[in-house]
Sequence to fold (677 residues):
Amino acid sequence: MLEKKPNHLINEKSPYLLEHAYNPVDWYPWGTEAFERAKKEDKPVFLSIGYSACHWCHVMERECFEDEDVAEILNRSFVAVKVDREERPDVDAVYMDVCQAMTGSGGWPMTILMTPEQKPFFAATYLPKEGDGRLYGLMDVLGAIEMQWQQDKDQLVESGQKVADFLLDRRENAPAKREEDLLREAREYFGHQFDREYGGFGTAPKFPAAHNLIFLLRYGAVKRDSEAVDMAAQTLEHMYRGGLFDHVGFGFSRYSTDRKWLIPHFEKMLYDNALLAMALLEAGKFTGNDLFYRVARRTLLYLQREMTGKEGGFFCSQDADSEGVEGKYYVFSPEEMIHVFGEQDGARFNSYFGLTRDGNYRGMNIPNRIHAQRADELDPQMEEIVRKVYEYRLQRFPLNRDDKVLTSWNALAAAAFAMAYRVLGDAGFLETAEKAMRFARERLTKPDGSLMVRWRDGEAKGEGFFDDYAYTAFAYLLLYDATLSAEHLQRALGCCAQIDARFADEENGGYFLYGKDSERLIVRPKEVFDSAFPSGNSVAGYVMIRLSELTGDEGMRKKALRQLSFLSGAVSDFPGGASFALTAMMRKLSPGAQAVCAARDEEDARRFLEFVRTGLPLGACVLLKTPENGGLLGKIAPFTREYGLKDGQTAYYLCRNRTCSAPVSNLEQFRRMCAVL
Fold:
């Protein structure tokens, strides 16, 4: 057997690219070398985009990219380029637009054929090696393009130019629309789409889309719309009951293939679990149901024990496949449980989690609580059995893990842990959040304060994208909410300053995905609609409106209003697809009150922090002035310079509806004043 030789991906750090480093296809990473070769040899470029945890990416690799016939034609007549969408969200965004425009849909693996000038003339997602009457085969596509490039290349070049022109021409912004109308339209959209039996929206497949649930929870609270809250709460409960939630090792999978949330697509993504933890925490706050707190804790425990590096950075994902079989790691038979854990504990586990002889997934069982009378019972004995099953499962063939740390996703997870500390008071959660952001400062930040995209195996790479800065600002904002540390507020403001300097569209509003000094692609994307996680433009709008409240800075307020005006026009055709932008708009329309404590000493500051944690709504506008931080806070929020002690005692100030109450020195009196917030 001939020894496999590496291709041009061998020196990359991305686990996804390294998975293809020994393919017979002569892959190149995205870069000058590949496109210069394509121009020199007059060949079209074959671009393949995917990510490490993608099941169908693995399937296409096995069927096509490990195949000698496919490799022969690609190496002969094309320059093959492989991209990790998580490392290059700019490339992914541009060609996802292409794929959706040309085919009406998109996804991964994404397959693009284009000129050496990066102008696309063919797009598809997964392709088998040979056609089956339903799908084109990759060999058929490559053969046809090879022939046409040789015989009528000009037609393909012209097609690529038309696609590029289309992408440029359609990026005009709509005029701003009334924000109240957008909120109402989105609420109606989710109401029409809601599955009243199993939760979620629309039909299978069902995605978590936790930012939609956060919007509904906050909309329900502000508008006193109990049905909106119920839609979010029911969806979270059904997600937990089903196999989407891993009842043994905890954490949520990417999406459900069925209506009941029973059978997931088994990969686990960092961003899904971070966002769902936040949605669960908010649901617990708004409903008073401890179930949501328990599931949030379990989700965060999963991230701590399986998705956190030694230095504190969060990894990207875990694979769906084990030993080449999707879901094999997660399923059990009832006989297996009894054999391993004995008749009593095994039968108890089988009954509690619905394991049967017939199974619910390829003859095996995904543990679930769909048919239980109660979603979650406080059963210490079952918790101990689950712990043992978890330890047993760890002995199975391990799941592949994409262990790179992405700046944006790391920040999102840190934000979730910061919120968890704010809600639950567990100091371990705060430590996890602080450690993750310290990792970002030490490993993913240049001396000038600019951000990198990813870190892996001792190397940081890539100029930071807009989302990296927006999510980092968001993480520092939530860390500020959890600690009232002026340093975190200062860091959030610093990120916003970099956002303006690097990404702003001064002419049309909003922010571009990549910076003005970054590599130029055929278009410069500006993403406004949410995907699996909120768009950077939505996150920036939310951060800016919050920072304007906290600092009282008129310049920040104008930036926030400009950003929200841009968003109200950009998402006007489909507000339901931009729920986090609507959450930011809701904050503008219902800003709430402002509370300030001028603390005499560390003990009074600690008591005020505990009051904030237990007695004020999430995201309340709160400032804490102490003898230690007074100077810094005065620079960040100049109005606080006038807030001092009262007769030498700690003073509490409350302002609402642009009217300030007289300061008081008694925390219990202040608690009563805040009870109506």
User: Anything to note?
Assistant: DSSP finds 23 helices and 19 strands in the chain.
